[in-house]
Amino acid sequence: MNILEINQELRSQLKMSEQQFRDLKEKFLVSEASVCLFLECEEHKGITESELGEKMQFKEEKLAEKSTQAEELCVVGQAGGRCVSL
User: Can you tell which superkingdom this protein's organism belongs to (predicted)?
Assistant: First the structure.
């Protein structure tokens, strides 16, 4: 093998290595983006669950208030001979 043949072989190997590097880099970037997207979804999921929990608690508190008001009206209404309901 002369110098030109060796040079050609090495250039060919270099091109293949560069292509393999690009392929691996692309796979890495896709994986990295997938992880970021997953973590972002999990973060939003946590926020959404937290917000839903707060909304449910607020609605339960409002329902409890209305129930208490209804009971008070019923007690007042019973004193007058009737029960008033909402």
Answer: Eukaryota
